Amino acid sequence: MKPIDPRLLQYSRSSRGFIFLTAGIALVNAVLTICQALLLSGAVVQIFQQNASIRLFSRTAIGLTLIFILRACVNFFGEWASTSASTTIRNELREKLLESALRDGSEVAHSGGSARLAILATRGINDLNGYFAKFLPQLLIATFVPVSVGLVIFFKDWRSGLVCLFTLPLIPLFGIIIGRYTASATQKKLEALGMMGGYFLDLISGINTLKVFGRDNLQSKKIKEVGEKYRIETMKVLKISFLSSLALEIVATLSVALMAVSIGLRLVDGAISLRTGLLVLILAPEVYWPIRQVASYFHAASDGIAVFDQLYEHFDRAPHAGGVVIRTVDAISWSELTVAYADREPITIPAGQIRRGDIHSVIGVSGAGKSTLAKILLGFLTPTSGEVLVSTESGLHPLSAIDKRSWHSLVSWMPQEPAFPSNSLRGLLHQAKSDVSDPELVSLLTRVGLDIADLPQGLDTALGTNKAPLSIGQLRKIALARAVLKPSPILILDEPSASVDDISEELIGQLISSQADPDKLILLISHRKFESMMTHSSTLVGDQE
Amino acid sequence: MGLLATSAWLISEASTRPPVLALEVAIVAVRTFGLSRGLLKYVSRIIEHDVALKTQTDLRIRIYENLRLIPSLHFGALKRGQVMQQLVADVDTSQDLWLRLWNPWFSALITGVAGIGIIYALLPLYAYWLALLFLVAITSAPLVAYLSGSSADIRNKESELFDRVMQSFESVDESLIFGYQADLMNEVTHQQRNIARLDKRAARWAGVASAGYAKALGIALVLGVLYASRAFHHHELIGINIAVVILLPLAIFDGVSSLPIAFARALKVKESINAIEPLLVPLTLDLQTPHRKRGSSLVIKELSPEIPDKELPTFSGEASPNNPWIVTGASGYGKSSLLYALLGFIQYSGQITVDGETISSLSPDNTTTLLQDDHLFVTSIRQNLKIAKPEATDQELVEVLELVELDVLLRNLPEGLDTLIGESGFNFSGGEKQRMKLARVLLRDSDIYLLDEPFEYIGMAQAARLSKMLLSRLSNKTLVIVSHLPIQA
Question: Does the pLDDT of residue A5 top 60, yes or no?
C-alpha cells in the first residue's frame, strides 16, 4: 500500500496539478509557522526582560497580525483547493470506472454483482474524499513543515534538534508498521460493507417471498448477525488505527517533554537563553503535529486506498483491440462451442450456421445453454473452446477479431429479462430507431400484442427501475418491439413468447415471420415447438426429450 | 493543554532560577499530562465507536421491521437504489453524529472554558476578550456549516446518481446493443457536475470557517501580547505567568479548529437521520378481520384489486380440494394483482371466504404462494429451499428437486445443495430458477396454494409433465393457478 500510487497520476490528470498546488501551500505553511514562533518568542522575551519599548511592541503586534492574515488566506485557499480538487478527481475516476465497467458487457463487469459495482462507483469513490481532501494535503504538509521546523530547531539548539532527529523518524516508522497491519483489516471491512449492501438489497428484493412463506419475521436475527460481523471488522480496524494514533501521540508528547525538561534544566544553568528556549518550545509541537495529523487522517484515507485497489482492477483491464470494422453480414457459423462455468457442468453447443434470410431456431430444455449461445453471438461471452465465424463484405472473420462497436450496431436483441433505463416508452423505442412517428410506434406495439390503451400514460409511460405498473409480460412485449424496430441485419430473440399469453403468442409468431426478409439473419431461442415450425434451420441444445 | 501550560510555566520558572527541586514537580506533571491524555482518548474512542456500531445494527433491524409491514405494492414503487442508500448509507452515517460532532464540540468547549478561566485569574480584562473571540469561533462553526449546508440537495442528487449508476450497470448489455450507453454516461456526468457545484460551494464556506478560526486565534494572540505587556508594566502580572497568558490561547483555540469539518459532516448526518426517520415510525396494517388460520374451501366473490392509475377486472371463482381454480387471461390483465389482493398486499373490493367465513386476507401460515416476482436469495440452494420449510432434511430437499426434474443438474453440481445462487440467480438459467421456486413450493405443506405462472420459462413438454405432477401431488389441496397457458385440470 503506497500513500501515493503512481497509477493515480496516470489515471487522473487533474491529480497532478493538485499535488503541486498542495505542496506549494504546505511550503508556505512551514515558513509562516516559523515566522510566527520567532515573533511570539521574541515578544515574550521582550516583556519578560522588561526592555520592551512600545515601538518594538507594536512592530511585533503588526508582524503577528500580518502572519495571521496570511495564514488565514492560506488556510482558506488550501481548504477550498483540496475540496474542489477532490471532487474533480473523484468525478474523473467515476467516469473512468463506468467507461471500463460498461465497455465489455455484463459478463465481464458484473462478476462481483452489479450492486457491489454500484457501491464502488458511488460510495466507494466518495470515500476517496478523505484521501484527497484531507490525507494527501496533510501528507505534503507533514513532509515540509517538520523538516523545515526541525532544521530551525537544530540551528538554534542542537540538543533539542538531536531529540527531533531521533524521535521524528519513529512516527512514520510506526505509521508504516501499523499501516501494513491495518491494510488487510481495512480490506475486510470494505468487504463486510459490500456484503452488507448486497445482503440488504437481496433481502429487500425478496421481501415479498419472505412474506408469503411467513419467514419475514426471522430476518431481524440475520440482520443482527451481519451487522455484528460488520461491527467486529470495523472495530478491528478502529482499534489498530486508534492504537496507532495513541502510539504516535505518546512519542510526540514524550519528545516534547524531553525537550522541555532539557531546556528547563539548561535554563537553570544559564546554558541557554530564554529566547532560544521559548522559540524551541513553541516550535517543538509543530514538528510532531502535522505527522500526527496524517496518522489521524490515515484512518479515513485507508478506506480510500482500499477503494483504489478495486478501481485499478477495473482500469487495468485492457480495452479490446480495435478489430475489423464490418458493415454487412452474410452468414454466421460456429463450430462446437463449450463454455466452462465455475460452479456447474460446462455447456456444449453443437455447431450451427445462420445465413441471410434464415430464421434459425435454438431449441432445448431450460438450462441447456440456449441463452449462452445468444450471449456468445452478441459478443458478451467468449467461449472456452470453439469459434464463431462471420462472413462479411470483407471476407470471413472470427467474431473475436471484429470491432465490438461495429458488431453491436449490426445486432438487435430481445433479452430474456429486459432491464430498461429510466426513459419514456417513446424515448426507449427511439433509441432503437430515431425517425419513427408515434402512430407507427403504436401500430408496432399493437402488432406485438400490446394495446397502448393498457398503458397508464401511453407512449409517455415511464420505464426504468420504477416499473411497478407494468407486468412482466408487458415489459417483454416492449423489449420485443424494440428489438424488431432496430434496423439491423441480425436479430436475436431470447424466448420471445415466455410470460405472454396465447393470443399474443400468435401475434408474435406472425411478427417474427414478417421479419423474415432476404437480408435478415434471425436467431430465435425458444422452448416451444410451434415457433420452430416456421423456421428454416435449428440447433438442438442439450439432451432432447 | 495541560502540557502546554505546564511547560510554559516550567520554562518561565526556570528562567527566574528557583531551586532545581521545585522544577522536578513540574517535570513530572508535564509527563503525566502527556501520557494520560493519550490513553484516556484511546479508551473513550473505542468505547464510543463500539456503542455507535451496535446502535446502528439495532437501527437497521427497526427499519427492516417497518419495511416488512409496508404492503407490497407501495414498497415495490420505491426505487431500489433509494432503499439501498437508505438502509446502508444512512444508517452508516447516522452513527457519526455523536462521534464527529458532539464529542469534539464538548471537548473544545471544556478546553476553552478551562483555559479562559485560568487567564481570568491572571488577567480578567484579557479573559473577556478571549471569551468573546472564543464564542465567535465556536458558534461560527455551526453557522458556517449551516450556510454551506443544502446538504439535502447534495443528498438527493447523490441518491439520484446512485440510481443512475445502478441502472447503467443493470442494463449494460442492452445499452451496448441499442447504443444508449453514451446517453447514460452523459447523464451521470451531468449529475456529477451538479453535485460538484454544490460540493464546491460547501468547500468555499468550509474555507471561510477555517480562515475565520485562524483570524480569531491571531487576534487573541496579538491582544494577549498587548495586555500582558501592559499588565507587566503596571506590575499586575509576575514574570512566570506572562508566558502562560501568551501561550494558553493557542491551546484554547486548538479544539475549535476541527469544528467546521465536524459540523459540515454533522449536517449531512442529520439529513440521513431525517431520511431514516419515517421508516422508524411503526406502521399498522388495516386488517378488519384476522387471517383465517385453517380451512380449505376458498370462495371469491366479485373481487376487484385496486391499483392506482389502473382499471382491473373483477374476479369470481372458487377452489377446493380436487377442484382447482385456474385463472387465465392476457398478460397485464390483472391476474397477479388478484393474488396480491388475496394475500392482503393490496387494497381490493369484494369478498373472500374460507369455509364460509369472510376474511380480509389469507394467512401465510396456511397458504403457500409462488409469486411472479418470487425471489431466489444470494445463498445456497439448501437455504433457499429451506425458507419454505426450515426443518426439512436434505433427503426431502433432494426429493422435491427430483420432482421438478432438477435431480440431474443437482448431481452434476460439485457442491450439491451448497451451490450458491448468484445475484438474481446468475449461474442458473431462467427455467432452472423457475423449477427451483416450484420445488420450494412443493416442499411446504399447507391447505391453500396460490401459484402465479408456475411454468414460466419452462419448455412445453416439460411444462406438461410438471403440470401433471403438480396437480396430482397437490390434488387434495386447494389450488389457485394463474397462467396465460392452458392447464389441464
Answer: yes
DSSP H helical ranges for A206-273: 207-212, 219-269
Task: Let me know if residue A1 belongs to a domain.
Answer: no
pLDDT tens figures, B409-460: 888 787 788 888 865 455 677 788 899 999 999 999 889 999 988 887 777 7
Give mean pLDDT, residues A128-142: 82
Give CA angle at B164 (B162, B165), nearest 5°: 65
Q: Which of B46, B72, B176 to mutate to test the interface with A (most CBs of A within 10 A)?
A: B176
A159 to chain B nearest CA, in Å?
Answer: 16
The better pLDDT of the pair B279, A427 is held by A427
Residues A35-44: what's their mean pLDDT? 78
pLDDT digits (tens, 9 = 90+) for A358-385: 888 887 766 677 778 888 888 888 888 8
Integer Cα distance of A143 and A145 in angstroms: 6
Which residue bears the cell 419452462? B458
A333 and A304 part of one domain: no
- Could you give the CA distance from residue B161 to residue B187 in angstroms, rounded to a whole number? 9
What's the fold here for domain B2-280?
ABC transporter transmembrane region fold (1.20.1560)
Chain centroid to Cα A520, Å, comes to 40
Nearest to A535 by CA among A498, A501, A509, A503: A509
What pLDDT shows up at residue B149?
A: 56
> Number of folded domains in chain A?
2
| Domain ranges, ordered by start, for chain B | 2-280, 308-483
Which CATH architecture fits B308-483? 3-Layer(aba) Sandwich (3.40)
Q: Are residues A527 and A448 in the same domain?
A: yes
SS3 B357: strand
pLDDT value of residue A152: 87
Domain-located, residue A319: no
Q: What is the CATH number of the domain that holds A125?
A: 1.20.1560.10
User: For position A405, which CATH number holds?
Assistant: 3.40.50.300
Q: Do A224 and B12 touch (CB under 8 A)?
A: no
Q: How far apart are CA B451 and CA B374, in angstroms?
A: 10
Which range has the top average pLDDT, A453-467, A473-487, B71-85?
Answer: A473-487
Q: Give the closest-approach CA distance of A205 to chain B in angstroms.
A: 7
A422/B contact by beta carbon, under 8 A: yes
Strand duo A395-398 + A388-392: pairing: antiparallel
CA distance A2 to A22: 18
Residue A323 falls within a domain, yes or no?
Answer: no
Q: How far is B245 from chain A (nearest CA, A)?
A: 10
* B229 contacts chain A (CB < 8 A): yes
Chain mean pLDDT for chain A: 77
ipTM of the complex: 0.72
- Interface contact A101, partner B, CB < 8 A: yes
Q: Which three cell numbers stand for residue B161?
A: 446518481
How far is it, in rounded angstroms, from Cα A381 to Cα A378?
A: 8
- pTM for the whole thing? 0.66
Is B427 an 8 Å CB contact of chain A?
A: yes
Q: What is the pLDDT of residue A112?
A: 58
Question: What residues contact B141, with CB distance under 8 A and at least 6 apart?
Answer: B209, B256, B259, B260, B262, B263
Considering only A224-233, B117-126, B235-244, B479-488, which range has the smallest mean pLDDT?
B235-244
A264–B26: do the CB atoms touch at under 8 Å?
yes
- Tell whether A292 and A439 lie within a shared domain: no
